[in-house]
Each structure stands twice: as structure tokens, then as C-alpha cells.
Write a structure and sequence with these properties.
The protein is α/β, with parallel strands linked by helices. The protein folds into two domains: 5-63, no CATH class; 88-492, Metallo-dependent phosphatases (Purple Acid Phosphatase, chain A, domain 2). Helix content is 21%, strand content 16%. The chain has an eight-stranded mixed sheet with strand order 1-7-8-9-10-12-11-13, with no helix packed on it. An eight-stranded mixed sheet has the order 2-16-15-14-3-4-5-6. The longest helix has 17 residues, at 221-237. The protein is globular and about 45 Å long.
Length: 494
């Protein structure tokens, strides 16, 4: 059973500020909220995580909770070779694995696959086949996860979505500098007739294709359905990689790198997706029943990545170059706790000076979202509550991303959204792709919340985002759990 929200928040606050916990509860004790046997971390973990921290003893003696790592700890860029399964984490210290900033560190790069583009047609994805392995029950799905989106839409006139059984026609005839929005037609028998790749032909550096999804880690029917639909899409039109956007292991992360959840919530659902997954972490991956304060759990994912080259997670934040796209994977959970200074120092200049055509940031927490959690700085409709409001995420995103990247792809809210560029963070297209295993509601206007204008939003079905970057041309598609195209839009960047 998940702890009451106030207790989870209180536990997080106590771990980082005793004063914050006292202010929230009027008490220095957490006993009413937690099971001492379950919440007590091994002494070895404490020694590894906070070795050398002057304040460790004082904090533990006062609150019984572990203090955070030094906020100045920097995030390293992986220097591993693509596909080799190795990472800079091999030499990482035990205290969160955050390495000093190395200004001379090289950036990982890999060419996109040379899968040819489908010619003016998209497949009808057949996802009716059941997974080879039995699918675990959805024991963690929250009530109301299947809630359909309200009728309040903010899409521009002419925006349309697909009928339930429609298949896409992908050739929109978009002209340069004109965004083309295309609703699927009823051509249910459309197939892809693409020639086999020529092994002698070098990779097309100007074409990159990928999928993205988050909040997947439930091991339920929806996760397996979305995984099957994505596998079919990637097989039909190509995926150089997949972005896995955090909350990969509900509800409180993994116990170690050998946890069975790696099999039931990653290996099995995506066994037919022939592409590497670039992984960032969410608050549930960091434990605390979603409060995300068990930061030492981050090492579990780095260690597992060394065992499975398909699960790419060399560090808490890292970057990759694929063709003419530069990817920046950020740890927004550390930002939530005010520990984002290292990422600002590292990725701010790195993103600003990157020369690739497309700059793409991906993380767990959104900057803008019309979903249940809402916008950074106002998460849960609580603008003044430390940590919970996401003010740290807002400030760090604005320092790192606004006016510098082309796309920000996140999860956290269990829905599919394509939010229009905003003056709040100019130059960025915002995507929420957190419907990888369940859905939650899309919010409507209220006293404390005004929805952002969107090209598309849906919380009725699980699904994923698929993107093709061809030169300066971008095509984005949202697909649902049944393998049907929900929405597509294309545009050319200036």
C-alpha cells in the first residue's frame, strides 16, 4: 500500500531539510508515516552514499534520514562505445556515481540506422498477438487511469484526430516553413513497400527516427500492448533508438541490478523492439513510494546497464549524438530536490554550443503539461511547497533549455500531449509521452490552472510518440496501444 501523500512528501523533506519537515508536520518524528523496518537503509548504503559528508551524522542524529549528496556534484558524459554495453560508470564512485565535470570529455555518438523511409504509406500495425510470456497483473494501476480526456480542447482550428480504427496516410505534402497537420484516413489496408537496406550504402546521416514513451514500469496489459505496437511501428518504418522517460519501475524502484522487475517491466515488454533504449530516471525509480528521495537507488540502473547493452544509462544525466541530432538526457528528479546545479553547469554550455541540426532534451518531469501534475513550479497546484511544486525543475529547465533546444520530451503525466511553443520558454516544442502503461486525466481550466494550447492531447488510451527528422524537416506521430495512428504533424525548422 502506498503511503499517504503528505507522509511521502514529509519523508522527502526530512531527508533534505529537517526544518521543512517540522514546518509541515510540527514534529521531528516520522514514525507515524513509515515502517521503521522498511524505511531503514543499510549502514553500508549510508556509508557509500554520504562518505565524507560533514553533515551526515548531524542530519541522521536529528531526523533519522539520510542527507542528500553535495549539490555541486557534477554529471559526467559517458565515454563508452556504442553497442559495447560499457559506460563511464565502471569507474564511478559509490556516492551516486556523479563524476567531476570533465570539460574535455568526448560525447557519445552513433550513426542512425540506414532503414529507408516508407514511401507515402504507413502500416496498419497488428498488435493482436499476445506476448510470449505471461503478462503480470496490473496491481499498481491507479483508479481512474482509463479516464477519457474531457471535451475541453485547445487545438488550433483544423486540428483533427483519427477515428478509432483508422490507419495513417503519412504523405501530407507539407511545404517548407508550413506546419502540416494530418488526420488519418480509412485506408486500413495500407502497407509499407520499402526496399531492403543496401549493406554497402553508408548510413544516411541526415535522417534520424526514434520512439519515446514514459511511465511504463507497471508490467500490466497496457504496457505490453504499447510495447507490441511500438515494436511493429519500429519494424515498419524504423527506430534508431527509443527514449525511456522515467518511472520505469513502479512503485518504488528496484532493490538492486538483479531485481526481477528488469525482466518483467523492461526485457519482456520490449523484447521485439530492435533498438537501444536511452534511459532517464523518474521519481518512482528513486523509491520512497514515488517521493524519489532514495537517491542511492540510481546505482541499480547503471549497474544493470552494464549487463544489458539495450538499456543505455551511463550516468544520471548524459548526452548522445545520433546523426544530425544531439540528445541530452537530464535527471529532473535531482532538480526537484534542488540538486540540479551540476547539470546546469554542464549542459547549459554544451547545449548552447552544440552544432547539430536538432537539439533534443528528454527527462521525466514536464515543463508544461495539461495533465494531472501540471506545470513545473505549480505541480499538484501547490506553488509554495518546497520540492513538491517543482520550482527547481522550472528554474533549471529555463537555465538549460529555453531558447536553446528544439524539442523537450517528458513523461510524469500519463497522457499524450503535443503542446504548442510558448513564450514562457521560447523556441521549444513540448511533448508529454507518459502513457506507456496507464492514463490519467487531462485537466481543464480552473482557478489555479489554465491549460496550455496544444496541437494534440489524449488521456483515453496508452501509447507512444514516434519522430522522424529528415534534414530540417520534423514529422511527429502519436500512436495508441492498439497500433493506430492518433495524430501526426510535420514542420520545418527555420
Amino acid at each position: 500500500m502506498q503511503a499517504p501523500f503528505a507522509c511521502r512528501v514529509g519523508a522527502a523533506l526530512s531527508a533534505f531539510s529537517l526544518a521543512g519537515w517540522v514546518a509541515l508536520t510540527g514534529s521531528t518524528a516520522l514514525g507515524a508515516c513509515s515502517d521503521p523496518a522498511a524505511s531503514a537503509a543499510p549502514a553500508a548504503d549510508a556509508a557509500n552514499l554520504f562518505a565524507g559528508a560533514d553533515t551526515a551524522a548531524a542530519v541522521e542524529a536529528t531526523s533519522g534520514a539520510k542527507p542528500p549528496p553535495d549539490a555541486s556534484a557534477a554529471v559526467s558524459t559517458s565515454d563508452a562505445a556504442r553497442g559495447a554495453g560499457a559506460s563511464a560508470a565502471d569507474a564511478a564512485p559509490a556516492d551516486l556515481g556523479l563524476l567531476p565535470i570533465d570539460a574535455a570529455a568526448t560525447t557519445d555518438s552513433m550513426p542512425p540506422s540506414d532503414v529507408p523511409a516508407a514511401a507515402d504509406a504507413a502500416p496498419v500495425l497488428d498488435t493482436s498477438a499476445a506476448p510470449d510470456a505471461a503478462v503480470p497483473g496490473d496491481a499498481t494501476a491507479a483508479p481512474g487511469d482509463a479516464t477519457a480526456a474531457p471535451g475541453d480542447t485547445t487545438a488550433a482550428p483544423g486540428d483533427t484526430t483519427a477515428a478509432p480504427d483508422a490507419a495513417p496516410v503519412l504523405d501530407t505534402g507539407a511545404t517548407p516553413d508550413t506546419a502540416a497537420e494530418t488526420a488519418p484516413t480509412t485506408a486500413d489496408t495500407a502497407t509499407v513497400d520499402a526496399p531492403a537496406p543496401d549493406a554497402a550504402t553508408p548510413p544516411q546521416q541526415s535522417i534520424v527516427r526514434f520512439a519515446a514513451l514514459g511511465d511504463t514500469g507497471k508490467g500490466n496489459d497496457t504496457q505490453y500492448k504499447v510495447g507490441a505496437a511500438m515494436a511493429q511501428k519500429c519494424k515498419a518504418t524504423g527506430c534508431d533508438f527509443v527514449l525511456l522517460l522515467g518511472d520505469n519501475f513502479y512503485s518504488t524502484g528496484t532493490k538492486d541490478e538483479n531485481d526481477e522487475q528488469f525482466k518483467s517491466k523492461f526485457e519482456e515488454p520490449y523484447k521485439d523492439v530492435a533498438a537501444p533504449f536511452f534511459v532517464v530516471l523518474g521519481n518512482h525509480d528513486y523509491g520512497g513510494e514515488g517521493a524519489g528521495y532514495e537517491l542511492w537507488k540510481g546505482d541499480n540502473y547503471k549497474k544493470y546497464a552494464k549487463k544489458n547493452a539495450k538499456f543505455v544509462h551511463p550516468d544520471y544525466a548524459y548526452d548522445k549524438v545520433v546523426g544530425h541530432a544531439h540528445l541530452f538526457g537530464l535527471d529532473s528528479n535531482l532538480m526537484m530536490y534542488g540538486l540540479g546545479a551540476a547539470q546546469v553547469a554542464k549542459f547549459g554550455p554544451l547545449i548552447k554550443n552544440a552544432t547539430e541540426t536538432w537539439k533534443i532534451a528528454f527527462a521525466h518531469h514536464p515543463y508544461l503539461s495539461n495533465g494531472k501534475h501540471g506545470n513545473a513550479g505549480m505541480y499538484e497546484g501547490l506553488p509554495l511547497i518546497p520540492i513538491v511544486s517543482g520550482d527547481g525543475v522550472k528554474k533549471d529547465y529555463e537555465a538549460i533549455l529555453c531558447g536553446k533546444v528544439d524539442l523537450l520530451i517528458t513523461g510524469h503525466d500519463h497522457s499524450r500531449q503535443w503542446i504548442k511553443a510558448s513564450a514562457k520558454c521560447p523556441g521549444v516544442e513540448f511533448f508529454v509521452a507518459g502513457a506507456g502503461a496507464s492514463t490519467t486525466e487531462i485537466k481543464t481550466k480552473s482557478l489555479l490552472f489554465t491549460p496550455s494550447p496544444t496541437w494534440f492531447e489524449d488521456a483515453a488510451l496508452g501509447g507512444f510518440l514516434w519522430v522522424e527528422l529528415k534534414g530540417k524537416h520534423m514529422k511527429g506521430e502519436f500512436w495508441d496501444e492498439n497500433g493506430k495512428l492518433s495524430y501526426t504533424r510535420e514542420y520545418d525548422k527555420p
